[in-house]
Specification:
Blueprint (H helix, E strand, L loop, with lengths): L5 E7 L20 E5 L5 E4 L4 H8 L11 E4 L23 E6 L9 H9 L15 E6 L5 E4 L2 E8 L5 E8 L2 E6 L7 H11 L4 E5 L4 H5 L10 H11 L3 E5 L7 H14 L3 E3 L5 E4 L6 E4 L9 E12 L5 E11 L3 E6 L8 E10 L2 E16 L6 E7 L2
Parallel strand pairs: 3-4, 4-5, 5-6, 10-11, 11-12, 12-13
Antiparallel strand pairs: 1-2, 1-14, 2-3, 7-8, 8-9, 9-10, 14-15, 16-17, 16-19, 17-18, 18-21, 19-20, 20-21
Helix pairs in contact: 3-5
Bound molecules: zinc ion (2 copies).
One zinc ion binds next to loops.
């Protein structure tokens, strides 16, 4: 029998507001939404930012095994964590069923989450009202400090330091533990301790990394967010194994997130910057944590072949140069087959001979490695590159 695995899919990783700026395409512009598929078949959705729309377009009801269906955990009611709800297509199909969890807001009272949904679809903010949303919806109030089971999975909640309140969720599955701590600011002793409890020994600790450490102590103090450095500190103190930097600032271009990631990796062994489309698998044989990055994000692919010279850095940090053929090319990126194994997120330079109006022309493109897969050809890897120029 195959080992049980837990799959964590990142559908939205951006904080505060979605971004469509090309400088943010690589990490992605959708606001927070994660999907966790537990070994027992139960599906968890963490937050309902704009990433939820993409998940909805591919959603099928979880079934088989001991699946307990779909459970949607909402950390708090700020826009970026709920704005995907009206665009989640499965909510408009009668046979579907969803169980929502969130806290009773002191500003709203009983049925806070239900009220939030009704308010965001109220006249004149949205063209259709809640009555057309005919999937079965159940709402459960949860408080910080609770623990409960859903199928074989144990869920624990903690309050985090954020304006108007925010819950952190810890999900313990039979294949590993994920702690999800978006929107939180360090500096409140009691809530800092809650954050450590949430992250204690977790395989994956997802933490708010919106601001730089410098911003956090100056211009952005009191805004309710954290930094990569605070994430590293908490991960160390709590004994978390892998840190995922999350809730990227809408003004952070991909290069800024790259540099944040580099700094964090200098301080902590296992760090990823959350990226739209990233999938983390827990419990698979081999590496305890496997992360797959998204491929080129679609559009305008051509069935063409270009001779290319590729320069980059290997996993081991050595420079390499290799001749290859680029056969899956789009305006945004390419899949390239290489003998060398380049580092994820490292820079690649691809020089191609491309037909121009006056004969062959050399085109030099700079890009980043966003994905490394096994290639059909033995001894080779298929490398996904997103171009930045
Ligand atoms: Zn947020
Ligand atoms: Zn917030």
């Amino acid at each position: 029998m195959a080992a049980p695995t837990t799959k964590l899919n990142f559908w939205g990783v951006r904080g505060s507001t979605p971004t469509v700026d090309p400088a943010t395409w690589r990490y992605g512009g959708n606001t927070p939404c994660l999907e966790l598929e537990a070994p027992d078949g139960t599906q968890f959705i963490l937050d309902c930012g704009t990433g939820l729309r993409m998940l909805g377009n591919r959603w099928t009801a979880p079934s088989g095994g001991e699946s307990q269906g779909t459970h949607i955990l909402i950390t708090h009611y700020h826009w970026d964590h709920i704005q995907g709800v009206p665009f989640f297509a499965p909510l408009y199909i009668e046979k579907n069923e969803f169980q929502f969890y969130s806290f009773r807001s002191e500003f709203l009272g009983a049925d806070s989450l239900k009220q939030v949904f009704e308010a965001q679809m109220a006249v004149p903010y949205f063209p259709v009202d809640m009555s057309v949303m005919n999937a079965k919806r159940k709402f459960q109030e949860v408080d910080g400090g609770e623990s409960f089971k859903i199928g074989e999975n144990k869920i624990s909640t903690r309050w985090l330091n954020h304006p108007h309140g925010c819950l952190g969720f810890r999900i313990e599955t039979t294949a590993g533990t994920v702690a999800y701590a978006t929107d939180n600011e360090p500096g409140n002793e009691k809530l800092d301790e809650s954050l450590r409890e949430l992250a204690a020994g977790a395989d994956i600790f997802i933490n708010d990394a919106q601001f730089s450490p410098e911003q956090l102590v100056s211009t952005r103090k009191g805004w309710g967010h954290s930094s990569w450095l605070e994430g590293v500190k908490t991960a160390r103190q709590a004994g978390a194994k892998t840190l995922v930097l999350f809730h990227h600032d809408p003004d952070s271009a991909d290069r800024t997130v790259d540099s944040i990631l580099r700094q964090a990796r200098d301080e902590f062994d296992s760090v990823f910057a959350a990226s739209e489309g990233m999938v983390i698998t827990l419990g698979a044989p081999g590496e305890p944590v496997q992360a797959h990055m998204p491929g080129t994000r679609t559009a305008l692919r051509r069935e063409v072949q270009f001779q290319a010279e590729v320069c980059g850095l290997t996993e081991g940090g050595k420079e390499f140069m290799e001749e290859t053929v680029v056969c899956d090319l789009s305006l945004q990126g390419a899949m390239i087959t290489l003998k060398h194994l380049p580092q994820l997120q490292s820079e690649l330079q691809v020089t191609m001979e491309a037909p121009g109006t006056n004969g062959e022309k050399r085109v030099q493109l700079k890009g980043y490695v966003v994905r490394v897969d096994d290639a059909a050809e033995k001894g080779h890897v298929a490398v996904g590159v997103v171009f930045t120029n």
